[in-house]
Amino acid sequence: MVALELGVVHEPTGGLRDAVETLAGRVETHTAHAPLSEHQRMVLARRSWQPGTGTDAGRLTAGIVATGSGSTTPVGYAQVTRDHAEGEYAVEILVDPEADGGPSVADALLGSAVRQVAAWGGGTVRLWVPKASVADDTLAAAHSFGHERDLIQMRCPLPLPKPGGDGRSGERAGLPTRPFRPGIDEDAWLVVNNRAFASHPEQGHWDRATLEEREREPWFDPEGFLVLESDQRMAGSCWTKVHAHTHPPMGEIYVIGVDPDFHGRGWGRGLTHAGLDWLAGRGLSVGMLYVDADNTAAVHLYRSMGFSDDHVDRSYLRAVDAG
After folding, report:
1. Dist CA 258 CA 235 (whole Å)
2. Does one domain contain both 179 and 112?
3. Strand, helix or coil for residue 93
4. Residue 170's domain spans which residues?
5. 175 and 66 within one domain
6. Which residues of 225-241 are buried (b: 16+ CB within 10 A; e: fewer)?
7. Based on the domain organization, do 127 and 216 belong to the same domain?
């Protein structure tokens, strides 16, 4: 393997974005999986990575670019982010599938990411790996990361079969959902979301800026963001997302939640049916969602509805001391 050079970038540029998008395209062609999460892609697209004020006060980002000696073409890239001031960081890594000594590239990038967090004062670091393998487990362990969570991507054929006689699908036709209203529903939805996901490390601490950032995404469609009301308040929702450029195109149950005050009514199943029916109405033939492997009740629910496991994404965790 040729000698590696690592460069740390603290402000995004058009050249960096183009290089990372090209690298990500090569990885996705090889793995049939987007190598950067939606969140990290949105961070890459931000105009600035400099710490801001107000809701942006806790944001920190660094990009780490790996090139061969004397080359400007990246063979690897790591992105380290902190979006809030709680001392929790996320890192994701891309390595060119044809890079000479790919494991060594990943090793160097992860080591550099850990050093960056130490330079920022340390904290908890979460490493996310799509379609995790034994090699990923080995790399994480070599840098003192322990296994934290498995996130299962599940898929189902669309449209779902019509409700049968099991008595469990009646909610499918009866839930009175309506589309989300941008500019009106944000605060109420955030209350429900943060109550429904109070213990969730990513989904449970959204603020208005986080939500509005997604509303500006080209895929956002309020017609597919289904809101359920009861007792003159928002009780739950099923937010869908269309992945038009995957093969095949897929419709995702992106965020689904029911306020804890309304648990036990079967509305999780009913909202899932409503979202999948809406996606099928858009002509999609594959439904998809992500669920934590240890959420056994949800896993059982989705399998009973016709979902099956496609693959597992994995997170690893470690604490980093100040450097």
Report:
1. 6
2. no
3. strand
4. 159-284
5. no
6. bbbbebeeebbbbbbbb
7. no
As given in the structure block, the two tokens for residue 291 are: 């669920």
174 pLDDT above the threshold of 90 = no
Q: Give the β-pairing of 225-230 and 177-179.
A: antiparallel
Contacts of 135 (CB under 8 A, 6+ apart): 103
Task: Say if residue 69's pLDDT is above 70.
Answer: yes
In eight-state DSSP terms, residue 169 is -
Positive or negative, the Cα torsion across 209, 20, 132, 104?
negative
Q: Is residue 62 part of a domain?
A: yes
User: Structure pTM?
Assistant: 0.89
**Percentage of the chain lying above the pLDDT 70 cut:** 94
pLDDT digits (tens, 9 = 90+) for 124-140: 999 999 999 999 999 99
Residue whose C-alpha is closest to residue 271's, from 184, 196, 201: 196
- Supply the CATH number for residue 175's domain: 3.40.630.30
Q: Are residues 92 and 183 in the same domain?
A: no
Please count the residues of the chain.
Answer: 323
Cis peptide before 159 (omega within 30 of 0): yes
User: Does residue 176 share a domain with residue 127?
Assistant: no
Kindly state whether residue 40 falls inside one of the protein's structural domains. Answer: yes
